[in-house]
Specification:
The structure holds three protein chains of three kinds.
Chain A lengths: L1 H26 L12 H36 L14 H30 L6 H5 L1 E8 L2 E6 L15 E4 L1 E5 L4 E7 L4 E5 L4 E5 L5 E5 L5 E7 L12 E6 L1 H15 L7
Parallel strand pairs in A: 1-5, 4-10
Antiparallel strand pairs in A: 1-2, 2-3, 5-8, 6-7, 6-9, 9-10
Helix pairs in contact in A: 1-2, 2-3
Chain B lengths: L1 H10 L2 H18 L12 H4 L3 H15 L18 E7 L7 E4 L13 E4 L2 H13 L5 H4 L5 E5 L4 E4 L14 E4 L3 H13 L1 H4 L38 H10 L14 H32 L1 H8 L5 H41 L27 H10 L5 H5 L27 E2 L5 E2 L15 H10 L16 H13 L20 H4 L3
Helix pairs in contact in B: 4-10, 4-12, 7-10, 9-10, 10-11, 10-12, 13-16, 15-16
Chain C lengths: L2 H5 L20 H6 L4 H31 L8 H5 L9 H37 L7 H9 L1 H11 L28 H30 L12 H33 L10 E2 L2 E2 L7 H18 L2 H14 L7 H15 L14 H29 L8 H24 L1 H7 L3 H31 L5 H27 L19 H31 L67
The chains are: A alpha+beta, B alpha+beta, C mainly alpha.
The complex binds protoporphyrin IX containing FE and copper (II) ion (2 copies).
The site of one copper (II) ion (CU) has 6 residues of chain A, from loops.
């Protein structure tokens, strides 16, 4: 009885873990929102995530079952039977070195394309290279955006007709856009959870980040690198417009920003 | 012996021991479960009043504004309290626990809610004063704590938790407020979540996080807010406060709270106004009472007097004066003072209070409307450096915020010098004039925002209001154009009129 | 022959310390306080770290409280520090909490309990040496931990305490104005790290020297128990990685105090003040820090891995499966451990090409980890197991390590790490490794070697109760963190629920907090067991587990100088149930056999 109880106990936990994992999407504990990524690169990331998840689940079940099994046999071995005297098995060692090795190597190589696409300039989509829409300037504890005036391109140095916004980033949907990420003070991280995008903002560096919102909508933007006491307050929003509306919005923003408050 | 006893009963039988363990844990837990409550703090000036006066002032504040857990505010202050307004349809003094009200539409359950009577403030005051004069109990005070015991929606019959006093003012047509401070409560909750650790429980700008900050968080209690769209003598408008909370203040630790819902933002603004009103009321009372009756005045009077008898005489006389003042004049001062404050806040939300330019913005590169022989930027520069506006004396010739005043000792309002050279704000925090080349505009970066900064000044700081006095609106636009051009001097063309080259003034030629 | 003494009377001998020859007449101060005896130092480390574990745990519970009941009154703290603000903690206090939790747990608990307590106690005993090679250095290594603890403790009293996390990234940690508590507190914190480094360094030199030079006759490298191998590799890791951290720490101190700007670029504006000089690069710190701290995570694991192998083998009455592969995989982990630090920096903005290489190296480091898991399962396979506290904790170690290792693969995959970096997934990962694996390993080790340390057995019932509660509490606390991470909840948020997309996670967080409270409360059982058994525990024989290691041939507790006679080693440490030795199911390393068939009976 005593023996059985402990095996049971060690078997209960992996089963529970699996059940909880299986329940996760239903309980909305998993990926935010509807569980689907809102950006194109995010779709690839999710795919890679699920590939790893499947492999890991298989390994998890395999190892836990193996462990449960050996524990069960080892604890129910009759008292007069000695333990199996073995120092190991060369063949087995080879098998469980080479097979996981191959799987792991495959996993590593399988990841590279998406990474290149996200970060390597040469692998960017064409539109991302030209569509530089804003500078995102993080600071304790908010996001300040700088857009070029409608029809102009973003310059490194602030221009007199640039437009500014706080905690609100407007982008066109359905096309890759690039933002220039920088920080005014400490490190921050530009994190779009529903788009699976993240990039640290490093003092002294200007880092391009591209993403493509699949649909028009509003997406959260938060800070993911400890930046001081107000780290948790750095919430902002990315608003993706249909391209035509985007142009119009930018124009109206320009008017609003250069408002002289004169009423006839 | 004992060892074995414990070993047998305890170590070998943990099952028996676990209830005890649990108990120990529980006790330790309970010790930590003690709750504390925050309270509004009174300012130092109140503590300096003579004890009787101090008590009086504190009582006024508590009865008018309550505590963080129970915030209240007199109905005449322009704060949205979220009350449910009822109107008396009929009242029969024979049945003092019943009121008939006009039908209301509300999905809130009225039963158990507090009830407040919205008398005309002045009438109400008269009733109180009369009662005091006749040394009768104050019938208004008897209304405190009345709640709704039952409500019948069909007949409109309201049953009260206690009998109403005999009061003529209670008559059909009088409005009642049920659940009168509901929104203050909600505002307090949000304020506690988002603002309190910097701005403090009482809105005094000294929350625990504040000490690390430069510049310091705003102390609301003076009722002074730096960046407003209202005139230089006006209070801040509700819209201004909301704007600041939505946009944050660039260049400071005040972040933007844009993502809060509109409703939450309104609640927070409301509560901030409440804190400001409370602080202002306290300040007003300090001045009114403290002018004559604080500890220092008494000490001054006693200065040099050594004879104990004389001391006693002076003190008694002083106290008599004070008591008379507290009894006769004080209620009036306190009441009408608050009414005046409330009026000022109401004014500020008036459309007329908002400052607009009387002329449109001049094209920065076109001729100045004030002096057509120069471009607007050029003229702005002349004004900036000139004697009338004296911008450069603080902001420096190059706009770096390093004018000569930043190196001089400045005077305090109440006389005496500051110990550190440089400018200070009304809260005596050291203050740097803005570096105009930094391209950061705390009060907003639209031309109209910068215009207003120059027109109405920055309240509570040495930045004066130029509008309608030393500069015309046309001139202000020139200065605005120049100031906004400053950070971009190196990328923008030189602002000179092509034809005006012949008539350059010396100041202009120094631009190049 | 001296070995005769060793081989007689394993069962009858209670190992009372007064049965050895020389009388120990040192003054009590030099015997118990400034002792140079490795066992006393080990026990000093053990008690100190257990105490500090409570401190770190208190920080953890405070963190959990805030996450479950944000901005409500936090017990104990509300009345002490935050009476004015109605008991509501401030965000910088929260920052201090997780900074200190990480710092205390990593630098003052896990590292010193493994290397300091068990390394010290076990190394000489297991290799048959009378003491460490440098006993005085050993003593200093213990006493250098206290200045570190003092610095950390003192830093709490400066402006709200250090607030840059245990990773202490500049600019936050490099400029006074950047964070509350980045005041002198951060400098103190860095000084604390330096002291910890010095302490570990002294230990590691000592361990290496001792293991290389002081093994008993016959104790070849491949007859060493895996514990010793693990300690050896750990010591090497420390010796090579620590100088980098110490240098980086000193550079950061210089940045803070003398304005050297190693890590500070020009033109940043912090708290309304602009840095005028510059030329530094914040990423440099991350490289230096992780160059130490990745190996350091293995410093926090390898010794436990070694000890688990020994305990599993003994409890299953079976040789370790694949002794040599175990040694090789530990070495591989150590070697690879030096070239994977960049996986903490995938999205830091470093050259993206580096991301690729670091990814491959990191994914490959999972391989030796996997090999070890398979070998542990192999060790249990066909064994003769008894479920006592030691076994349970050891099996939990393997089980939890599998989870931690698997979650590591998610993060090692760069594209996936784009999403889960700096979310709670990371927190789940390293808690499964550091709590789930290492700490369960430590619980097992305490139970296992306690009789040797104090001459008494620990209570089995209390031990099991403690195990069950801790296991439930631990999984309840940390398993849901994977979900939080996938839901996109960033780490180090004082109040995540301000963000709409995280609001619905509050109930889950509350559940985790209840689990954490359970887990925290369960640790008192451990303390009661450890301290209670000192007095009330059953007297332990010399070799209560019928184990093979040399330490079990010394009296319990071993006297000053450890062994009565110089032990001689005839075989490897895992000869359980050997068919060549049928009268007992174990075969101590020191036991001379008339007929010794093979010179090395380990594979
Ligand atoms: C299968 C083997 C492992 C792999 C593939 C792996 C991978 C990783 C990766 C990629 C990260 C960085 C994640 C990020 O910040 O985005 C990480 C973080 C971490 N790992 Fe592992 N890991 C493994 C095993 C371990 C072990 C054995 C330990 C401890 C003994 C450990 C302790 C940690 C710690 C403490 C952190 C987080 C540090 C921090 O950011 O505060 N990991 N791991
Ligand atoms: Cu941030
Ligand atoms: Cu690592």
């Amino acid at each position: 009885m005593k023996r059985l109880w402990w095996i049971f106990f060690l078997m209960i936990w992996p089963v529970l873990a699996l059940v909880v994992c299986a329940m996760t999407p239903g309980l909305k504990w998993g990926f935010p929102g509807d569980g689907l990524s809102d950006s194109t690169i995010g779709v690839e990331i999710d795919h890679l995530f699920y590939v790893i998840l499947i492999i890991c689940t298989v390994v998890f079940i395999g190892t836990q079952v193996a462990m449960g099994y050996v524990l069960w046999t080892a604890s129910s071995r009759p008292a007069d039977r000695r333990a199996w005297y073995s120092h190991g098995n060369h063949k087995l060692e080879m098998i469980w070195t080479v097979i996981p090795g191959i799987i792991l190597l495959f996993l590593a190589l399988y990841q590279t394309r998406t990474w290149a696409e996200f970060r390597m300039n040469s692998a960017y989509p064409e539109a991302a290279k030209t569509n530089i829409i804003a500078e995102v300037n993080a600071r304790q504890f908010e996001w300040r955006m700088r857009y070029p005036a409608p029809g102009k391109t973003l310059e490194r140095k602030p221009q007199i007709d640039d437009m500014y916004q706080v905690n609100e980033l407007h982008v066109p949907a359905g096309t890759p856009v690039t933002i220039q990420l920088r920080t005014q003070d400490v490190q921050h991280s530009f994190f779009l959870p529903t788009m699976r995008i993240k990039q640290d903002a490093v003092p002294g560096m200007i880092i391009p980040v591209w993403f493509e919102a699949k649909e028009p909508g509003e997406y959260p933007l938060v800070c993911a690198e400890l930046c001081g006491w107000g780290h948790y307050k750095m919430g902002a929003i990315v608003i993706a417009h249909p391209p035509a509306e985007y142009e119009a919005y930018m124009k109206s923003l320009h008017e609003e920003q250069f408002e002289d408050g004169y009423i006839e | 012996m004992l060892n074995r006893f414990v070993a047998q009963n305890f170590l070998s039988a943990p099952a028996n021991a676990s209830p005890w363990l649990l108990l120990v844990c529980l006790l330790a837990g309970l010790a930590g479960c003690e709750q504390v409550q925050s309270d509004f703090v009174f300012n130092e000036k109140t503590q300096e009043l003579l004890p009787e006066a101090e008590v009086k002032v504190k009582n006024t504040l508590v009865s008018s504004f309550g505590s963080p857990a129970q915030p209240t505010i007199p109905a005449f202050f322009p704060v949205d309290r979220g009350q449910i307004t009822l109107e008396i349809a009929d009242f029969d003094p024979e049945k003092p626990t019943e009121l008939l009200i006009e039908p209301v539409e509300t999905d809130v359950d009225l039963v158990g809610k507090k009830l407040q009577f919205l008398f005309d403030p002045e009438d109400q005051f008269d009733v109180t004063m009369e009662a005091i004069e006749e040394e009768l109990p104050d019938p208004i005070a008897e209304l405190d704590g009345i709640t709704i015991a039952a409500y019948d929606a069909e007949s409109g019959k309201l049953t009260l938790s206690k009998a109403l006093p005999d009061l003529e003012l209670i008559e059909p047509g009088l409005e009642l407020a049920a659940n009168p401070n509901y929104k203050l409560h909600q505002g307090q909750f949000l304020y506690e979540q988002h603002c309190q650790h910097c701005h403090g429980v009482s809105g005094s700008g000294d929350g625990p996080t504040a000490r690390y900050m430069e510049p310091k968080p705003r102390d609301y209690r003076k009722g002074i807010f730096k960046f407003t769209s209202t005139g230089s003598r006006d209070h801040v408008s509700t819209a201004d406060l909301k704007h600041i909370i939505v946009e944050g203040i660039p260049g400071t630790y005040m972040p933007s709270f844009k993502l809060l819902s509109d409703e939450s933002l309104d609640l927070i603004v409301n509560y901030v106004k409440f804190l400001a009103m409370r602080g202002e009321t306290e300040g007003m009372l300090n001045v009114e009472v403290g002018l004559d009756f604080n500890k220092k005045v008494l000490a001054d009077e006693l200065e040099g007097v050594t004879d104990p008898k004389e001391i006693e005489e002076i003190t008694t006389e002083f106290k008599e004066d004070m008591n008379e003042f507290l009894e006769v004049d004080y209620p009036e001062i306190a009441f009408f003072g608050q009414l005046d404050l409330a009026d000022a806040w109401i004014e500020a939300d008036n459309e007329d209070a908002i400052v607009y330019a009387s002329v449109p913005q001049t094209d920065p590169y076109g001729p100045s409307a004030a002096d057509p022989s120069l471009t607007s930027i050029e003229n702005g520069r002349i004004l900036y450096l000139g004697k009338d506006a004296q911008c450069a004396s603080c902001h420096g010739d190059g706009g770096k915020g390093d004018g000569f005043q930043t190196r001089q000792l400045q005077k305090r309002r109440e006389g005496g010098d500051f110990t550190v050279p440089g400018l200070h704000d009304d809260w005596y925090n050291p203050l740097k004039p803005r570096d105009l080349t930094s391209d950061i505009y705390r009060g907003g970066r639209r031309p109209i925002d910068v215009f207003r900064r120059i027109y109405v000044g920055i309240k509570g700081t040495p930045m004066p209001a130029f509008g309608g006095k030393s500069l015309t609106d046309q001139q202000i636009w020139d200065v605005v154009n120049y100031v906004m051009y400053l950070p971009h001097e190196d990328t923008m063309p030189i602002p000179k009129l092509p034809k005006a080259e012949a008539s350059e003034s010396p100041a202009v030629s120094s631009i190049e | 022959m001296t070995s005769e003494v060793q081989t007689t009377g394993e069962h009858g001998d209670t190992g009372d310390s007064h049965c050895h020859h020389h009388v120990d007449n040192r003054w009590w101060i030099s015997k118990y306080v400034f002792s140079t005896d490795h066992k006393v130092i080990g026990i000093q480390f053990l008690f100190s770290t257990l105490f500090l574990m409570l401190v770190g745990g208190a920080f953890a519970l405070a963190i959990r409280w805030q996450l479950a009941f944000p901005n409500t009154q936090m017990p104990f703290v509300n009345t002490t520090f935050f009476a004015e603000t109605g008991g509501q903690i401030t965000p910088e206090f929260y920052t201090m909490l997780f900074t200190m939790h990480g710092t205390v747990m990593i630098f003052l608990v896990i590292i010193p309990i493994l290397a300091g307590a068990f390394g010290n106690f076990l190394i000489p005993l297991m290799i048959g040496a009378p003491d460490m090679a440098f006993p005085k250095l050993n003593m200093m290594s213990y006493w250098f931990m206290w200045p570190a603890a003092f610095c950390f403790g003192l830093s709490l009293f400066y402006e709200g305490g250090p607030a840059a996390g245990w990773t202490s990234y500049p600019i936050l940690a490099a400029i006074y104005d950047a964070a509350p508590g980045s005041g002198f507190a951060q400098t103190l914190w860095l000084m604390g790290i330096t002291f910890v480094g010095v302490s570990s360094m002294m230990g590691s030199i000592n361990y290496m020297t001792t293991i290389i030079n002081m093994r008993a006759p016959g104790m070849t490298f491949f007859r060493m128990p895996l514990t010793i191998w693990a300690m050896f590799i750990t010591a090497i890791l420390q010796a090579f990685a620590l100088p980098v951290l110490t240098a980086a720490g000193l550079m950061l101190i210089a940045d803070r105090e003398f304005g050297t700007c190693f890590f500070v670029p020009a033109g940043i504006v912090v708290n309304n003040a602009e840095s005028t000089v510059g030329g530094g690069q914040p990423l440099l710190w991350q490289h230096l820090f992780w160059f130490y701290s990745h190996p350091a995570v293995y410093i926090m694991l390898l010794p436990a891995m070694g000890m688990i192998s020994d305990m599993l083998s003994c409890m299953c009455r079976k040789p370790v499966f694949g002794y040599r592969p175990m040694v090789y995989s530990m070495s591989a982990i150590a070697g690879l451990g030096f070239i994977v630090w960049g996986h903490h920096m995938f999205i830091s903005g470093m050259n993206p090409a580096l991301g690729m290489t670091f990814m491959v190296a990191t994914i490959m480091i999972a391989l030796p980890s996997a090999i070890k898991v398979f070998n542990w399962i192999g060790t249990i396979w066909g064994g003769h197991i008894e479920f006592n506290t030691v076994t349970l904790n050891a099996v939990a170690f393997v089980s939890m390590f599998i989870v931690g290792g698997l979650s590591g693969i998610f993060m090692a995959a760069v594209p996936v790490d784009i999403y889960i970096h700096d979310t709670y997934f990371i927190v789940a990962h390293f808690h499964y490794i550091l709590f789930g694996a290492t700490l369960f390993g430590i619980f097992a080790a305490i139970q296992f070697w306690y009789p040797k340390m104090f001459g008494r057995m620990m209570s089995e019932r209390l031990g099991k109760l403690h195990f069950v509660l801790t296991f439930i509490g631990m999984n309840g606390t940390f398993f849901p963190m994977h979900m939080l991470g996938i839901a996109g909840m960033p780490r180090r948020y004082a109040n995540p629920y301000l963000h709409e997309y995280l609001e619905h996670l509050l109930p889950l967080n509350q559940f985790m907090t209840y689990s954490a409270i359970l887990m925290g409360a369960a640790q008192f059982l451990l303390l009661i067991n450890v301290f209670g058994s000192l007095i009330w525990g059953k007297k332990a024989p010399k070799n209560p587990w019928n184990a093979n290691g040399l330490e079990w041939q010394a009296p319990s507790p071993p006297p000053h100088g450890n062994f009565e006679t110089q032990p001689l080693v005839y075989r490897g440490p895992y000869e359980y149930s050997s068919p060549d030795h049928l009268d007992k199911d174990y075969w101590p390393q020191t036991e001379r056999e008339v007929y010794d068939p093979t010179p090395t009976s380990t594979v």
